[in-house]
Amino acid sequence: MNDVSQSTVILKPASARQAFDFDVTIVGAGPVGLALAGWLARRSVTRELKIALIDAREPEDSIADPRAIAVSQGSRMILEPLRWPADATAIQRIHVSQRGHFGRTLIDHSEHGLPALGYVLRYGSIVHGLAEAVHASPVHWFRSTSASTPVQEDDGVTLPIETAGVTRRLRTRILVNAEGGLFGDQKSGKRSAHGADDADNGKDTDADAIADKNARSTKPTTGARDYGQTALVGTVTVSAPQPHVAWERFTSQGPIALLPMGGVRGADYALVWCCAPDEAARRSQLSDDEFLRELGAAFGDRMGRFTQIRGRASFPLGLNAVDTLVNGHIVAIGNAAQTLHPVAGQGLNLGLRDAHALADALSAEGPTPVALATFAQRRALDRRMTIGATDTLARLFTVDSTPLAIMRGLALTALEFVPPVKTALARQMMFGQRR
Hints:
With 435 residues, this protein is an alpha+beta fold. 34% of the residues lie in helices and 29% in strands. It comes from Paraburkholderia fungorum.
């Protein structure tokens, strides 16, 4: 994991300044970082910029990553000019219901005049497609390279990087932190996107210790919530598939999401099962057959039996959103800016909208603090709406109690019988708030 801090600014006299190596340096070569690099390299206004991409992982590791991710129709529309994976599976209907309680709603692509509501694809597929687009551009890609705490100066940023044991310093006008893992880092005591370390309770970093008397702290605050849940994920096969239908099923054992992934007869689904950490730990120790029996008992028989599971893993669930996206010449996007509960599948979509809006701002204003200020202003409403809606859904739909089950039932029924409300919610999840 790269360590990209935004906590230190050192002012240097003009005589001490060096030439810039790059105009824009992007740390993190996941889908969000790659998409930003691709958009900047593709546009006529920004293609002449010197762009660097810092990738800590081995390229083969990212492309081989089998994890399933969901992207909205809106995300497909902005990604398609770069590269769209051929193996994406369309979601044409979303079925939302409660096990053992009233309330159900269906969201269908035909209601919105769209070919699909969203798509499910492998993480490796989207990375591979976007990487090919970046390879065909003049972006300078530093592979298997780690970034250390940057030093922000009044005219740009100096970023120490290390490749194969060799350390060098890059000077860049704008530094983009697109490295993921904000909530997971917080839980494990690693450094967050803005340089605050839970293990040291926000005390000075090493860079602060060497800063001179002109250094000043600019550590922003963050909004955080630990939902006290763990997600169990994997790919399951069912005996009676319903192709292109995604399921969100709220049960006494925790919410279960099943996302269509194609396969033989369309029988493969990406599983996200949210439950209490102790239950997750217990289920992680079960054999595959025992796990599938418990999953079937919780979900029901709407798709027959669960016959196979592979790629089992787990991770903690929480909300962590930085209040300040921009700090001088450094900007955070994607999971470096916010991590969300997966209940609405909005994390990657929000990050891609971050990257697209940043590309727009840099195209209009160049690699300047003015562009970053414009970006932050334009992203405020969409971030507030999406983070707020996801947090509300996570708190309302992930707690097992009879009063809340009744409230959930009323909410689902209202969505079904008040079409304008359902349409507004669906369009927010597909396209966000555009400005």
